[in-house]
Amino acid sequence: xxxxxxxxxxxAGKSSTLKMLEDLGFFCIDNLPAPLIEKFADLFAGQLTDxxxxxxxxVAIGIDAxxxxxxxxxxxxxxxxxGIAYEIFFLDASDDVIVKRFKxxxxxxxxxxxxRIEDGIEREREQIAYLxxxxxxxxxxxxxxxxxxxKEINDIYASNKxxxxxxxxxxxxxFKYGIPADADLVFDVRFLPNPYYIEELKGDTGRDKSVxxxxxxxxxxxxxxxxxxxxxxxxxxxxxxxGKNQLVIAIGCTGGKHRSVCLAExxxxxxxxxxxxxxxxxxxxxxxxSQRQRGR
Length: 296
Fold this sequence. Notes:
Elements (H helix, E strand, L loop, with lengths): L1 E7 L5 H10 L3 E4 L6 H12 L9 E5 L10 H9 L4 E7 L2 H11 L11 H11 L1 H5 L3 E4 L5 H12 L9 E8 L10 E4 L10 H4 L6 H7 L3 H23 L4 E8 L5 H13 L6 E6 L4 H8 L1
Parallel strand pairs: 1-3, 1-4, 2-3, 4-5, 6-8, 6-9, 7-8
Helix pairs in contact: 1-7
């Protein structure tokens, strides 16, 4: 039997994850009280794994603040003692993102029914520390769309790809709109000639072949990418070793439309060669110049 414990911070995407695992053939149950975990696993391991006509051998159990996180350690230890192997899939997100999600859905945090969401988040992080420490996979969904989450789950549980508990966000931006507040690494590519000042390239973006070919025609662009690759090859394994599960790499130029977009695309393609971590590409400011011109 393959048993996956799906857990993490409330608002980080546990319910969505269970639905996606269900689509992959898992039998899923949400909000199972912690004391019943061992009995539930015994039932499936002993009686249903060979049931005809279905893949009862894949089971996912959702546990969170509603199920009694303070009592979860004992039943998980009992699973190990009884030889029942399991994985912990832990979903996390930054505090500000969780607060925003609860406010958008107008739901109350399960540990702050009559108080502030921030207080509930703080209590939950304390109670869930054991599960995060022992997690097999940790996925930070702060910057993920539903399709990004689905891709990561498919990579792990459908394609059986290796996963290093690190999700990389490659983000292009324009300095005139501000440095991204959540950036871990910021690289300034304004040292490259600006396509904005070439009339036939001004209206295009770094996604267009015309701008791409122009930016990449300079030897400095290739040298930058080579040196950045060497740095990331060194940094990424060390970030993983230290337990970091979210890394935002921000590439900036003046307006976030030409040079940064082109090089962010190149970095994304370069990192896509390694399947040991999640990867997402975002161009924050690529349309802002056009929006400002339309607003005049």
